[in-house]
Amino acid sequence: MLDGKPWVDGPYPLLETPSKTQDLASHGAIYAASEMTHFHNCIICGLNSIYLQATHVHETADISDFLFFGKLWSDFVDRHHETEGETIFPDLDAFTGEKGLMQHSVEQHRAFHSGLLKLREYCSITSPEDYSSEALKKMIDGFAPMLQQHLSEEADALLGLKKYDDQGLRKVWKAAETKARAKSRATGAGKEEVFPFALGLADRTYEGGIHNFPPLPFFIPYLVHYWFSTKHAGTWRFLPCDFWGQPRPLMFVE
Question: CA-to-CA distance for 245 and 240, rounded, in angstroms?
Answer without folding.
Answer: 9
